[in-house]
Amino acid sequence: MGLIEVAGLSRPKPGEATSGDAWFHHATETATFIAVVDGLGHGAEATKAANLAVAFLREQLRNDEEPVRLDLLARGLHRELRHGRGAVAALAWIDPRADEIRYVGIGNVEVCLIADLPSRLFSRPGLVGGPRPIHPDVQRTSFSPRSLLVLHTDGVGPIPAQTIPRLGTCAEIARSLLAGWARPDDDATVVVARRGGGTR
Q: Could you tell me where the DSSP H helices lie in 68-131?
């Protein structure tokens, strides 16, 4: 079935000490969870929101049974952030046994899946932790051994799919995308995932 290689890079807005972006991944014996979170705005309050989101998700992933229900996870995160700045978020669950990825995106976190078949993954408008309800839409599509997933915050891009490198490790691809497409006026994060490791 192959392992999932994941790597990501973040950097704060130039002039800021901390980033309002955060990401993390959690690997089980059978699947991999990836989250990208962008606290509203930038600076200390955005950093607090992003860190709170990651702490909540990490705790939930420790306790949840598989497969993780991304819609319930997103709604729980919405409740967790309701007294703070709020955030936008992307949640992905990759199951290599089923050659499948499940995805929920709330707000302007971007998703690009390079795969054998056209991808229809997208993020819905909204604010996690905001005053209005969110409507997490769990999307499913194929994640074959040749698939490459890129998640990034709005501090990066937009990145044309045809410019995304396919060679190198996920860390090298993430570094290249961050260097080439990060905006000078915002926090920036890129996360890259694919089956297996090494160069292609």
A: 70-80
Q: What is the CA radius of gyration of the chain?
A: 16
Q: Of 140, 139, 137, 28, give the one whose Cα is nearest residue 75.
A: 137
Is 200 contained in some domain? Answer: no
162 Cβ neighbours under 8 A, 6+ residues apart: none
- Rounded to the nearest 5°, which phi and psi values hold at 194? -165, 170
Number of compact structural domains in the chain: 1
Name, in order, each residue with C-beta under 8 angstroms of 71's C-beta and a sequence gap of 6 or more: 104, 136, 137, 138
DSSP one-letter code for 134? P
Q: How many CA atoms lie within 13 A of 8 on its CB side?
A: 23
Classify residue 13: in a domain, yes or no: yes
Q: Print the domain residue range for 64.
A: 4-195
Q: How far apart are CA 121 and CA 189, in angstroms?
A: 19
Helical segments of the chain, H only: 44-63, 70-80, 170-181
| CATH number where 176 lies | 3.60.40.10
pLDDT per residue as tens, the chain (200 positions): 458 999 999 999 999 999 999 999 999 888 999 999 999 988 899 999 999 999 999 999 987 677 789 999 999 999 999 998 999 999 999 999 999 999 999 999 999 999 887 788 999 999 999 999 999 999 999 999 989 999 999 999 899 999 999 999 999 999 999 999 999 999 999 999 998 744 44
